[in-house]
């Protein structure tokens, strides 16, 4: 998939067959974070205050600010008026509009937000690390088909293949809305190149009857990301939000 990162435009319009994916870095500057936090709700301030490390708090504040900014742009409402509801598994939805679905993911200082209209969306981003045993971890979270495919790789490609599989699986369970409570071994995804991301099997009668589609991409050097949608978008548009700050 060829990616070109566009810039933010006020009053963005989202078609039903198009996905918008926003990519950006967390703000580190404390005065800027203070300004951004003024847009957040009381419960978001409470959540932010519970982070032990400043870098994690910065990621949360940056992500929530941009999420509110984007929703307000798409729906032309005041970002401070947005009220979120949370599922049993803590997936947020916007109470004022059932047509717009969104999902947020972050790893390190990198954050992505995916938005879709009348489609369900889940996204996941991971910073690629090589300080663990991919096969050992895969034995706990991958299906047999995925483990067999992973065993064909070695060296740095082994880690990239693991993260391709992991981000694809994470984006799916986030789209379903059940998070890590969803049995990770109950479905299989491809772990080869980004152009052929797809589901191999979904051993759940309800989910297997749905129109789930996978997409994989490189948001920036050293990271990998995936998108799951219920519905098959004709186009994915990528946006760079770093110029907003």
Brief descriptors of the model:
alpha+beta; 32% helix; three-stranded antiparallel sheet; five-stranded mixed sheet; 245 residues; globular; 12 strands; 28% strand; 7 helices
Describe the structure.
With 245 residues, this protein is of the alpha+beta class. It is 32% helix and 28% strand. A five-stranded mixed sheet has the order 1-12-2-6-5, covered by helices on one side. A hairpin with a 2-residue loop joins strand 5 and strand 6. The longest helix is centred in the first third of the chain and has 22 residues, at 54-75. It is globular. The model has no long low-confidence stretch (mean pLDDT 89).
What is Rg?
18 Å
Show unreliable segments.
none
Tell how many strands the DSSP assignment holds: 12
How would you sum up the major sheet?
A: 5 strands, mixed
Helical percentage: 25-40%
Mean pLDDT: 89
Give the strand content: 25-35%
Which overall shape is indicated by the principal axes computed on the Cα atoms?
A: globular
- Separate helix tally: 7
Content-based structural category: alpha+beta
Biggest β-sheet: strands ordered side by side in the sheet: 1-12-2-6-5
- Helices and strands, in N-to-C order? EEHHHEEEEEHHHEEHEEE
